[in-house]
Amino acid sequence: MATATPNVLLIHCHDLGQYLGCYGAPIETPNVDALAAEGVRFENHFGTAPQCSPSRGSLMTGCYPHVNGLMGLAHGEWELNDDERILPHYLAEAGYETHLFGLQHITQDTDRLGYEYVHSEGNLYPGVSPAVHQVNRATNVTDVVTTFLEKRAFDAPFFASVGFFELHRVEESNGRYGFQRGRYDADDPDDVGPLSYLPDRRGIRQDLSEMHGMVYAIDDAVGRIRTCLAETGLDEETLVVFTTEHGIAFPRAKGTCYDPGVEAALIMSHPELASGGREFDALVSNVDVTPTLLDLLDVPLPTAVNGRSFRPLLSGADDEHRDELFLEMTWHDMYNPIRAIRTDRFKYIRNFWYLPRVYLPRDVFASESGREVREAYAVPTRPFEELYDLYEGPTEVDNVANEPRYEDRRRDLAERLHTWMVETDDPLLDGPIPPGDFDTIMAWPTDAG
């Protein structure tokens, strides 16, 4: 029988999006698929941002990036607001032991996270050094997690954050950013299915074939952890949550508010709370995950969060969760202020800066796939308003913002987006947002001559 106070094992990785077999991607991921078959899967789950730290911050706080302060990368001098609370804080107060395994990427100060036990060093950023890559790889993190589970080295219900380095690109000696083909079991580029929103070109297939190796590493790690849970008898008393923060690191995905940039896997499994192989089509945001977990564990829900619990979906009390999702981006490796709203059918994107047609983050720009398209994507100026009819154009290529038949829809979504920005006190309404290291820049000595 499942325990009334379940353990929580939150497994997360980089840049995966929904690139899994159970989401229809052309790849075999039997272990993650099995987790979904026994648990529940959310078909329309999205991160709040198409980048790592801001989206992860929303996952752990239940607040949008511009609300919790994490509007850029944690290693880029962005931090959560001083008074911000995250999931392990709430669970520790409820009597949980809290453990951090592997990667996190929401603060440079691990002490701020409030974990009672930190089982890994170098847990901030995947691109710091080869040594950090090695520590946070799925196989190594899983070694530590399974040892912990086998020893049952906990005295109370535990919450464990388990973070994998994969599928983050790595800068190679030639300046190219790839997925380390020699380290992982890549597929043959000729056997890889193309992406619907990109041209079918050799460099893109090459990147995808290499990325497959990292996906296999994650799938293997999930299988090992689930086997360990079963062998130790902890599977009946542990809520397993598998997710990622944003879409895959390819053009028109990571770094954009198009669906391939903000889509994210979300799978949950527990004998009583999340079971039966159910699939949910309702719109869900990762800002909702912390409120939902607290609700499922009967921990009082904080009032100062933007997310809402989707426990009614799991219990069958409702079949809808949200009418709309809000998305945003502010800083990454450059200033890229975007706010967006997505409904079941439409996506409205408001761009607040003069930028190329499609923004390519550094690791995507310098990749094989980036080289295939950057001449076309990196030159033209993007429009300030974009509107997509996701039923008629799911790849979000045909911008209908200026078509007369969509004028009422454009105006309605623009007003709803502006209302959300006002209600959440978005600083972008007051003008450009300075970088996280603005005070450091202003303190630089100036040439008085």
TrEMBL record:
The keyword Hydrolase applies. Transmembrane segments: none annotated. The keyword Hydrolase applies. Keywords: Hydrolase. CDD domains: SGSH. One of its GO terms (molecular function) is arylsulfatase activity. It comes from the Archaea. Residues 6-299 form the Sulfatase N-terminal domain. Pfam families: Sulfatase. Belongs to the sulfatase family. This is Arylsulfatase A family protein. It comes from Halovivax ruber (strain DSM 18193 / JCM 13892 / XH-70).
